[in-house]
Amino acid sequence: MKNLLLCFLFVFLTTQYVNAQDRITGKSYATRSEVLGQNGMVATSHPLATQIGLDILKKGGNAIDAAIAANAALGLMEPTGCGVGGDLFAIVWDGKTKKLYALNASGRSPQKLTLEYFEKRNMEKIPSHGPLPVSVPGAVDGWFELHKKFGSKPMTEILAPAIEYAEKGFPLTELIAWYMQRTIPFFESQNFPNIEDTYKTQNGGKLPNEGEIYKNPYLADTYRKIAEGGRDAFYKGEIAKIIGKFIKEQGGFLSAKDLAAHKSEWVEPVSVNYRGYDVWELPPNGQGIAALQMLQILEGYDFTNIEFGSTEHLHLFTEAKKLAFEDRAKYYADMDFFDVPVEQLLSDDYAANRRKLIGNRAGTYSAGEISAGETIYMTVADNEGTMVSLIQSNYRGMGSGMAPPKLGFMLQDRGELFSLKRGQANTYEPAKRPFHTIIPAFITKDGKPYVSFGVMGGDFQPMGHTQIVMNLIDFGMNLQEAGDAPRWDHTGGASPLGRTTEDTGTIRVESGIPYSTIRGLIDKGHNIGIARGIYGGYQAILWDDKNKVYHGASESRKDGQAAGY
């Protein structure tokens, strides 16, 4: 009966006009043309942040300077997805050395919080909110690591635009206003401290709506201290002491010593070759290699005769996802604590063996045997050929609900993503980085930069990355079309948090997927569902090496903008 009702719903949805703009050129689902520019390009999820990044480039800053400036602005303008209370990952193509670099700026768990603490309280999972899931925020250290290696302008100049907007205010965009009007009341209902003072008192005692002015003078002050005092102002100064004292008062364990001990890590990015294109991700503790595993499996199928959005397309994609995510649940974790077999997981032989398990109907799988919620994504490119792919998040939208007094931001709740089951790769340990969902991506071709891109959205991100790569390479879409094309995801299966596979899960599709595909998937034994707001937010920059032109794209699911010059 459930599937029958969904069928009727999809018949209705997919017989309506999915797109009403009647574009003269391009795919019918594209919302706009690609943005083109020769000197630089910025694509973020907020138009004002994009303009800040573009201004930095025009004033002689490079891609790293612009990326940090835009990310700081997003922490103010899009607090429902990111901020200095969260973590950061980045992939950088350096135009000077012609090489890729990868930064893992994720924070670790409190040193004094142990697995036994949870076991004595019979807790089966770490809470989603409150002081216990708070891990060290790594974003600020990530900014300074990127700046130390590649930056050119002083941090006082880089953070100045965000500070000015925080003090003078800016109009809230449609989507962020919608999220804040639903998120802030939830935190208030939980009686978390400092929520009203941080988000409402500075704005006349209420939350602004779309188009109304929002200010955050506390965050302006925090940014100013960071700009003038460097990363130590955050991790070893007054800010760290305020955070440590506050979390202790709330019954948590994150301390000023945990912040003082934090450091980011430059890592070697990993890749697979997909039909002549090298697709790059970061190794765990993130989930980026799940996208690479999916691509390795899918490369074994000829998509020249498989139509985009068809039953066969979604079926093969979903089964590849299930296989990769079983391995994700078993093997992905902080590599300082667990020997993740990255090379074997990405090998051709392993992919071929896993591919053999895929049949003509929806299946359930287990991990292979190996021997041995809201985020922001942004990308920037400059006139020296440097391109940065950067993702930053608090997790579960705004984070833990823990807003330290008068600092203007909320701390992340990434610690929720540990497993509390003993003996697993991602089992909780002190000073360990949790399994991470946020992942930036990059594509090179013949040793040259091609596309810097990312797609927000928790577990959806490896699926989103794989869809974008296939849209560009298998289905010949341009950069904007690749992001605007209708999406789908799959829920269910095993999880790094300890959940095991119980059934074939559910494929959730956007309304642009035709009913004929839905019907075909049901015939193959798949369960079908719908959801909103789970398909991420895509930004991308493509380098056309022949014409020496950047192409930029920002999809319509968010408030974002791509702009170049």
UniProtKB/TrEMBL annotation:
Entry keywords, A to Z: Acyltransferase, Glutathione biosynthesis, Hydrolase, Signal, Transferase, Zymogen
Matches recorded under InterPro entries: GGT-like_enzyme, GGT_peptidase, GGT_ssub_C, Ntn_hydrolases_N
One of the Pfam families matching this protein, by short name: G_glu_transpept
Signal peptide boundaries: 1-20
Post-translational modification: Cleaved by autocatalysis into a large and a small subunit.
Any single biological process term in GO: glutathione catabolic process
Family statement: Belongs to the gamma-glutamyltransferase family.
Subunit structure: This enzyme consists of two polypeptide chains, which are synthesized in precursor form from a single polypeptide.
Reaction(s) this enzyme catalyzes, per UniProt: an N-terminal (5-L-glutamyl)-[peptide] + an alpha-amino acid = 5-L-glutamyl amino acid + an N-terminal L-alpha-aminoacyl-[peptide]; glutathione + H2O = L-cysteinylglycine + L-glutamate; an S-substituted glutathione + H2O = an S-substituted L-cysteinylglycine + L-glutamate
Gene: ggt
Catalytic site: T375
Pathway: Sulfur metabolism; glutathione metabolism
Originating species: Leptobacterium flavescens
GO molecular function (one): leukotriene C4 gamma-glutamyl transferase activity
Designated name of the protein: Glutathione hydrolase proenzyme
Gene3D superfamilies, per database record: 1.10.246.230, 3.60.20.40
tRNA-binding listed as a keyword: no
The EC number(s) this enzyme carries: 2.3.2.2, 3.4.19.13
Binding-site residues for L-glutamate, renumbered to this chain: G458
